[in-house]
TrEMBL record, chains A, B, C, D:
<keyword id="KW-0057">Aromatic amino acid biosynthesis</keyword>
<comment type="pathway">
    <text>Metabolic intermediate biosynthesis; chorismate biosynthesis; chorismate from D-erythrose 4-phosphate and phosphoenolpyruvate: step 7/7.</text>
</comment>
<keyword id="KW-0288">FMN</keyword>
<feature type="binding site">
    <location>
        <begin position="270"/>
        <end position="274"/>
    </location>
    <ligand>
        <name>FMN</name>
    </ligand>
</feature>
<dbReference type="GO" id="GO:0010181">
    <property type="term" value="F:FMN binding"/>
</dbReference>
<dbReference type="GO" id="GO:0008652">
    <property type="term" value="P:amino acid biosynthetic process"/>
</dbReference>
<keyword id="KW-0274">FAD</keyword>
<keyword id="KW-0285">Flavoprotein</keyword>
<keyword id="KW-0028">Amino-acid biosynthesis</keyword>
<feature type="binding site">
    <location>
        <position position="46"/>
    </location>
    <ligand>
        <name>NADP(+)</name>
    </ligand>
</feature>
<dbReference type="GO" id="GO:0009073">
    <property type="term" value="P:aromatic amino acid family biosynthetic process"/>
</dbReference>
<protein>
    <recommendedName>
        <fullName>Chorismate synthase</fullName>
        <ecNumber>4.2.3.5</ecNumber>
    </recommendedName>
</protein>
<dbReference type="InterPro" id="IPR035904">
    <property type="entry name" value="Chorismate_synth_AroC_sf"/>
</dbReference>
<dbReference type="GO" id="GO:0009423">
    <property type="term" value="P:chorismate biosynthetic process"/>
</dbReference>
<dbReference type="InterPro" id="IPR020541">
    <property type="entry name" value="Chorismate_synthase_CS"/>
</dbReference>
<keyword id="KW-0521">NADP</keyword>
<feature type="binding site">
    <location>
        <begin position="123"/>
        <end position="125"/>
    </location>
    <ligand>
        <name>FMN</name>
    </ligand>
</feature>
Length: 329, 329, 329, 329
């Protein structure tokens, strides 16, 4: 449903054009200093309108802490974070309320619930990630205090690597009224060995579920990932020496448990579904139709997915860190 | 931990060389005919010793239903399935009890628990999947009654496709005392639209977690998967017409919810970690050592992972099918 | 933690004197008409200041729906409900921040978390129930549409029954700077047979946990309750006839599953812990001290616990109703 | 469903007259010595046939550890415990398969599942508690190593206290073909302060749910319990001094969190539903009928419920102990 995690558990809510979005964090360790200024920078990183490569929408997205913090410290009780919605152009969507946008969740929401908030994608909007990013910032602050650091970057866009190549690919797509996909990598340094559970609760399984749970992600790989399919075991096994592992094809996870090496995750991100080119679709009555998705959309979502993916990795790791503590007598 | 699923919930137990392995299934709908003969064929498919391409170990693996079935029908109470262990060559492992096999979970289990059953990999052995496959057979029987069918096949091994190419790659690796990785695809036909939850409980997120939770899997992709990273949105969006979708790049899932199209999943499987070639490692005391993993290992685990991956997909789907029923008034 | 329920799942947050209190409801069936006016009356019933028998505090407690409702109908996505705090007399508590009030959670919160929001009891305040009551109102609306109705009443206060007796007991306690306990009964009519799970998820187990999870409740009984301890089986068994059961000692639940009879629950409510009489306690440094709890406290919490207990019963029942649907093919 | 606990999680299975009963324990801390001889005595305490006061059935109930223990120590992986069924007189039940025994779960199982294993009550039999008691023995062993001890005793039977009075009440009921109810008390000494969560996860809420989840329990109270309803706050609050609390009306739990005092729980146990006297009931076709329940039943279940209630308290406490560890940095 809308809850993620077991020990550090977040529950998000809110639609793109509703009154507000937010998250309740349950299980944050008590005694950590926390204020809005720890969270706001993460929201600022994810918001659009900051470069010609992303959507020109202006989303102010100011976070307010509603509970769980007293005298500047977390108390162990739920931390509710609220972001009010502004700058919603709901009328852009009015015309499309009876059309299912290809590549979007419009059709499947209607099938599942028999009703949907069509304004800005409603709950399936990218704005849903505000709650994740805000909670992730809290998790990251705690992880940092343990020496664990998380970083993401764009690996490639439309098959191209290098900042300039990528920029021109995105702008070309934008100018063509189209969009492009790409690959992002997220890593975590400083994780202790021993995190994760060996069967269904494998750390890599949790990461894969977390990443594929981000809209637009269609593939996840750990360490060498799909490249392992073309290898010999003698190439792929990471030799162990008394100075440590000699390679990291495993991406920091063996048998579902962290090895102490860097954790390395890559995700495949599809081209933004909203494009200005006409596409075939049907209307609510089941009739053939054509749709051109107007609005202020990102020509490539890869750069903006980075803070979300970092947040999800932070959430998985803090959960595993707290879980592992039950083994301490 | 060792439980998977919410509505159709399985809990597995057992080590490679312990007394027994098994699974408890909770939430199986009542009134379905069920006997050992519905489950045994799936176990027979996963067992080794059936061809020169796989391990020559002989594992009889007879399943016994301990509970939850009365007069040949499920009653809605937990179904416990038991498989006794036989043919365990524990002495093969005695020599390695103080060595951490590269690519295996030996090192990380030790880090996590401070103790491990080193015989045959203990709980991290491939034999742990017996419980999954047995439970998956029960799930598949139920899904079949709803018109949902699941199938898996080997896509490639060591970069090669085609039965003969694949066979010779595997035999070559075996003869060299090495192993090879590959890619498998699993599909589900007949799924109704509307399965899955739109945020953290996305159907593709559940599938990704389930697949990455199988030992040796290092990557998961849905539909077009990593290929989306090189595409335009205008290529990748699946057009909708009154006769249905015109393509299936989404792999049957939009916004985390099934669309009614075929669900398509691919997994990257690493080369078997156990190889006969000498490898660098350390012993329990932290000293450098060399290890040659003797035993009767699969030179390529891809063919044997198919029934496991099918089982995991069945478990995800039956869970989603039961979940979706709560929307019916 | 702060989440209750499986299918209709609520997560509450907020402290007595923090910025706000609220709840996120996840799993509410889509398509139900819902507005603030469906929830506000329940909050008005629980609030103090409405009679000389209860606290004179004025809590306006206006609820705002933040998400999950579109065009006046639930959409199946999370419904976040917010109540801003006002009228907080935090300075009343400043003097007591280093004292542990007897009968309160001050001491144990400090032991558990090493930190606590001492203003108005923080998270252990009765105001925490605002989220429960708001969510319960949504659940009750849905249950009513299925013909299930929930009602609570005061059975006795300080051993006395009858409205006038009870009123004079409460006023006498108030005038003495003391407080009194009592018993409340909550019933549900119209429940179908078949709700609840037979082992750990027994419907009465869920109800007992829900009721004992309300602050001040020290006992729970179902049907004949503690009276069964003095009976013969021949008296206590409810005979079954083709016109129905001839008695209801079971309180509507047999073997953990609803029988279709009225569900009958009683709870023992302790006297309000906050009293104006001096009491022995210790301070944060562990020194003996005396405390007199000033403030605007209820001399008897039984009347005000009724809407909370009704809400908890509604939450248990809606969860069971949705759970039972997975048995429908 | 059939799983209890979060950190120390048990899943039970099995019917009275099926092949076997058992339990899978997940989350048991690694490194604890464990063998069948740690568990068997608890099963021997719960079994019938040991005195004229209880059922004369002979149930050998030998437990076998199937997994999770290596070289005499727990490994952190699931511990599966198996008890094969013997001495089942299924033919006793054949005649009653179309009758719903009053006070039993026959009617409600049929309503819920549309099918039931009528032999010996199937899953609703008291034999279902074998899994709980076996798992409880493992939990108790661990708790004992932390200095936490759990004890239960019979408080009263049919309103009478004192061993001789109780014995004669039970024998009188037995001779009359009837049964009697009673009250049991279970306590835990040595619990540290800080266990339990303050809102829905209150320690007393967990205990109440655990106890009411035992068949035949119709009431639960903590500390002073229902007696609080007749008290003043000034009587009921437990004064705190630097030498500790001066009384224990709270039963060791304040605001849902353990205070470090003894935890005190009492349960009301109904008279055994199976009695030899004729009772009114209906058959599967809905026709009026009379039933006389033959078999070897306990005239009073209170003595035999003690080991079960101790087990449930142990399971709640170990779960809370492990949960609390996540607060340790």
């Amino acid at each position: 449903m809308n809850t993620f995690g077991t020990n550090f558990r977040i529950t998000t809510f809110g639609e793109s054009h509703g009154a507000a979005l937010g998250v309740v964090i349950d299980g944050c360790p008590p005694g950590m200093t926390l204020s809005e200024s720890d969270i706001q920078p993460a929201l600022d990183r994810r918001k659009p309108g900051t470069s010609p490569l992303v959507s020109p929408r202006q989303e102010s997205d100011r976070v307010e802490i509603l509970s769980g913090v007293f005298d500047g410290k977390t108390t162990g009780t739920p931390i509710a974070l609220l972001v009010r919605n502004h700058d919603a152009h709901s009328h852009d969507y009015e015309k499309m309320k009876n059309l299912f946008r290809p590549g979007h969740a419009d059709f499947t929401f209607q099938q599942k619930y028999g009703i949907r908030d069509y304004r800005g994608g409603g709950r399936s909007s990218g704005r849903e990630t505000i709650g994740r990013v805000a909670a992730g910032a809290v998790a990251e602050k705690y992880l940092t205090s343990l020496g664990i650091t998380i970083k993401g970057h764009v690996v490639s866009v439309h098959g191209k690597t290098g900042a300039q190549e990528i920029e021109s690919e995105i702008l070309a797509a934008k100018n063509a009224g189209d969009s492009v996909g790409g690959i992002a990598e997220i890593t975590a340094k400083g994780c202790p060995a021993g995190l994760g559970d060996p069967v269904f609760g494998k750390l890599d399984a949790a990461i894969a579920g977390a990443m594929m749970g981000i809209g637009a992600v269609k593939g996840v790989e750990i360490g060498a990932g799909f490249a392992v399919a073309g290898r010999f075991g003698s190439e792929n096994n990471d030799p162990i020496t008394k100075s440590g592992f000699l390679s990291n094809n495993a991406g920091g996870i063996l048998g579902g448990i962290s090895s102490g090496q860097e954790i390395v995750v890559r995700i495949a991100v599809k081209p933004t579904a909203s494009i200005a080119k006409p596409q075939k679709t049907i209307d609510a009555g089941g009739n053939d139709a054509s749709i051109t998705v107007k609005g202020r959309h990102d020509p490539c979502i890869v750069p903006r997915i980075i803070p979300v993916a970092e947040a999800m990795l932070a959430l998985v790791l803090i959960d595993a860190v707290l879980e592992q503590r039950k083994y301490r007598e």
